[in-house]
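Student: Send me a single protein entry containing the residue sequence and its fold in token form, directly below this note:

Tutor:
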Amino acid sequence: MAHVHPTHEDPVARALSEGVGGPMGRRGAGHRWWTPLRVVLLVTAVCFALGMVQKQSCYDDTWSDGQQRYSHMCYSDLPYLYTGRGMVERAWPYTDDDQVRDRYEVMEYPVGISYWAWGTAWVAQAADHLGLPDLAERAAQPAESLFGRPEVQSEIRWYVVVNAVGLGAVALLTVWFLSRTHRRRPWDAMAYAASPALALTALVNWDLLAVGLVAAATWAWSRDRPVLTGVLIGLGTATKLYPLFLLGGVLVICLRDKRLRDLVAVAAAAAAAWVVADLPAYLSGPEQWRVFWSFNSERGADLGSLWLVAQQAGDAAISAHTINVASWLFFGAWCLAVLVLGLRAPETPRLAQLGFLVVAGFLLVNKVYSPQYVLWLLPLAVLARPRWRDQLVWQAGEVLYFAAVWWYLGEYLAPAGGGDAGFYWLAIALRVACELYLVAIVVRDVLSPRHDPVRDGAYVAPPPRLARTG
């Protein structure tokens, strides 16, 4: 067969296949139309649709029930930011107009997300009203009252739908890139396509935009296109900061393989793409453009982070400055360790392996670890360690945390006698433990490439007793 079939090399896939006829046989030709790529695209669409259904109860009441969004775990930032950041009045996110700034806070996201959020607001209003509505009446109302207005509630529902359609398309593009990164391993993308983390968190925020660009960058690198890789990393960084860390993986690979020209090409293309993407925002409102950087610098320990556990369990306030210094020192040491690991490995590590390790280190000590941040790791994890057992162990911790954070915010985990919600701390610790498990497995693969399923020659034909014709 032209590609590696998971039932031949993955013990979990092989065991599960026994219920539907067993592993693919030597003479099995598959279906002429249902290629691996089409199958994973279909599974991605179904998984994403299930995620939309999971948000149905909140959609029905336009996210107005303050407790239901936590008890049903259907919270999303999208409806609240639509009115809270001026999208309801189609305000440019980086305008310095005094009237707009008096009414609305500045978008605290990088420019890629801000552009998308602003553009989809125009589409949602046009779809709801079959044309753009007159904003004069709502501009005369207090901004905090707009969320409850019937016409705005209708726009919010359209806003979520428009974003869901757009993000669904991004999810399909992402799985297309993942399935084509390793030419003989299109089925590796199934761990992304059928991911419970994708279904649960895809619509919490706009992180999926950066995820698609990261997947595209790994695909471009696998096709030996350094300039395109750099452009995609730059655009990803303009959408969410973490794609920048792929440059660390590129650095290790280029140092090992003496590809300094490629390293310069990737870095220069990334810088140019980032500047071009940020320029409209910076020129229209430099102070507003800086809000993303100041906001993240000034915030303290927040949800999901080990810093929050330390602060609550130790009953001591930890300043934002202390967290900034300590987390960056740890992350710097982590990056240095990844560099040494990559340079001393028996074979040149793959970009997905190095990228996964760097991003995981950043998340472990970040001052906030939101539930949707699992998406940052998902495409890198799928390519770095394409084994169902390891993916299930890691994502089990993420699903547990997803439930725990909403129940914590809804105060369902608060002890009857008062005090802090210790179960929430436990959920954070288990999430970190599952992530460290996958980190350890990837490190082992780097140090001992014979364990890496993706290495050339790793494919082993099924033994005679497993040979089937269908």
Observations:
- The chain has one domain: 6-12+35-464.
- Residues 195 and 392 are 9 Å apart (CA to CA).
- Residues 457-470 have pLDDT under 50 and may be disordered.
